[in-house]
């Protein structure tokens, strides 16, 4: 659980810890399958497996929203400067140390450092944006590539996650604090499931207008799909992904209201039987697979962000409110251990998988499924083992050190954080407008 300074202690939810590993695993198997493919373009089987990343990222963001409100919701009865930065620093200490370590590795293993040492202003601004974790907040090209594709590609989600951390206290104070009672929480939950679908339908129908508007203000822009302004807006940027985070917040709000209201909780316990809950959980898992095959234009568009969030929310509620056989899987010791290291598993794969790239040890012939599959399994196992090590050696000790530091030098840490954020924002804005 989180530090007593910043959160009231609640019961540990092991089901969600296990679910975090599923999120990390989906992304790991997608990247391993793609990056270790011996053929370009990848075989159709690999193309299908690659789509599992579209399950992992929404799962991470919805879980993040749930965990943040579940742990910190009671802290923000009102918004204070001191309370806000205590909370932000608690989240910073959880994620930033390993991120900073791997960002340093990225500098020395890629060509970015060479351009930086040549005093390239664009690269300097880009580095400051990465260092201050703001690089997914703006459409930022370097040599025709998005900054998030130029250095440490997976870090875009860390930047997006930090945007959620900064935004949550305002959501809590100005929205969640106005919602009291289980009925209002349920209405808010339904609103958070439906409203984004309408917003994204509007965006889907006006893609050309939005593109022309953004092209007017973001120069230069790239025509390459993965570096395009549309890809940034709908997939990478926090402005579209925050709906998944808010969906998770709404699940946490509803869950807390249910368990604190004995009448509603008792009703659910009596009527939501194990068989019904298990049926819901199986249907959701099947939906995750089936949706990968649907190629309708709107489905493809919203699969970049919110599509799976409602089903993920239903899965989380069913896991938390009723115990089934699937709960036993998610709460096993192995799943909890891997779930606790899920952040390390996600973020370290950029380098662990590179050790197994085909050009380092060429395949014989064309696509050999057994050879490819064995390489993927070995690479994934290696990545997980290394991630468990970085979790124990870097994540946990660094988090504890930084939180102890914040207790001893609270005012210094707070103002240093403000200055750092302002430097990062200034650097990004200078790049955009000058």
Q: What is the helical fraction, as a range of percent?
A: over 70%
Classify the oligomer: single chain
Question: Strand count, sense and closure of the main sheet?
Answer: 2 strands, antiparallel
Widest sheet: strand order? 1-2
Average pLDDT score: 82
The count of helical stretches stands at: 21
User: Could you give the count of β-strands?
Assistant: 2
Based on CA atoms alone, the radius of gyration comes out at 22 Å
Structural class by SSE content: mainly alpha
Q: What is the general shape?
A: globular
Provide the low-confidence segments as ranges.
1-8
Q: How many separate structural domains?
A: 1
Kindly, what is the distance between the CA atoms of the first and last residues, rounded to a whole number of angstroms?
Answer: 44 Å
Elements, N to C (H/E): HHHHHHEEHHHHHHHHHHHHHHH
Beta content comes to: under 5%
Provide a quick synopsis of the model:
Helices cover 74% and strands 1% of the residues. With 434 residues, it is an all-alpha fold.
What does this structure look like?
This protein is an all-alpha fold. It has one domain (about 15-434). The protein contains 21 helices and two strands. It has helices at about 15-35, 45-50, 55-70, 80-110, 110-115, 120-130, 145-150, 155-175, 180-205, 205-215, 230-235, 240-260, 260-270, 275-290, 295-300, 310-320, 325-330, 335-340, 340-350, 370-410, 410-434; strands at about 140, 145. Strands 1-2 form a two-stranded antiparallel sheet. A hairpin with a 2-residue loop joins strand 1 (about 140) and strand 2 (about 145). The longest helix has about 40 residues, at about 370-410. The radius of gyration is 22 Å and the shape is globular.
């Amino acid at each position: 659980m989180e530090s007593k300074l910043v959160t009231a202690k609640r019961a540990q939810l092991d089901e969600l810890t296990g679910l975090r590993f599923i999120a990390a695993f989906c992304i790991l198997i997608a990247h391993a399958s793609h990056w270790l493919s011996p053929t370009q373009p990848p075989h159709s089987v690999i193309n299908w497996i690659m789509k599992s990343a579209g399950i992992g990222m929404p799962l991470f963001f919805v879980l993040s929203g749930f965990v943040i409100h579940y742990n910190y919701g009671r802290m923000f009865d009102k918004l204070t400067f001191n309370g806000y930065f205590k909370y932000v620093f608690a989240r910073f200490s959880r994620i930033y140390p390993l991120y900073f370590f791997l960002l340093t590795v990225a500098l020395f293993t890629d060509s970015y450092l060479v351009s930086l040492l040549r005093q390239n202003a664009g690269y300097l601004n880009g580095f400051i944006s990465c260092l201050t974790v703001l690089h997914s907040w703006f459409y930022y090209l370097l040599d025709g590539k998005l900054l998030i594709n130029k250095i440490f590609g997976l870090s875009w989600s860390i930047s997006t996650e930090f945007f959620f951390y900064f935004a949550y206290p305002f959501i809590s104070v100005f929205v969640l604090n106005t919602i009291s009672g289980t009925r209002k929480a349920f209405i808010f939950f339904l609103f958070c499931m439906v409203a984004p679908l309408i917003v994204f339908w509007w965006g889907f129908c006006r893609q050309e207008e939005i593109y022309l508007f953004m092209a007017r203000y973001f120069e230069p822009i790239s025509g390459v799909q993965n570096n395009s302004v549309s890809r940034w807006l709908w997939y990478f940027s926090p402005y579209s992904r925050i709906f998944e985070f808010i969906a998770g917040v709404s699940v946490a709000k509803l869950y807390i209201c249910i368990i604190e209201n004995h009448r509603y909780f008792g009703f659910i316990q009596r009527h939501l039987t194990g068989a019904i809950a298990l049926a819901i959980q199986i249907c959701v898992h099947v939906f995750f697979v089936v949706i990968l095959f649907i190629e309708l234009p709107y489905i493809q568009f919203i699969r970049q962000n919110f599509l799976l969030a409602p089903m993920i929310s239903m899965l989380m509620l069913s896991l938390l409110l009723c115990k089934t056989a699937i709960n036993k899987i998610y709460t096993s010791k192995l799943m909890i251990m891997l779930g606790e290291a899920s952040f390390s598993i996600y973020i370290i794969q950029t380098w662990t998988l590179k050790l197994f790239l085909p050009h380092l040890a060429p395949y014989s012939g064309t696509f050999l499924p057994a050879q490819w599959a064995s390489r993927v399994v070995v690479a994934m196992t290696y990545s997980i083992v290394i991630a468990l090590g970085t979790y124990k050696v870097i994540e946990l000790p660094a988090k504890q050190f930084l939180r102890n530091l914040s207790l001893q030098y609270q005012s210094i840490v707070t103002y240093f954080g403000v200055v750092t954020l302002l430097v990062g924002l200034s650097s990004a804005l200078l790049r955009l407008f000058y």
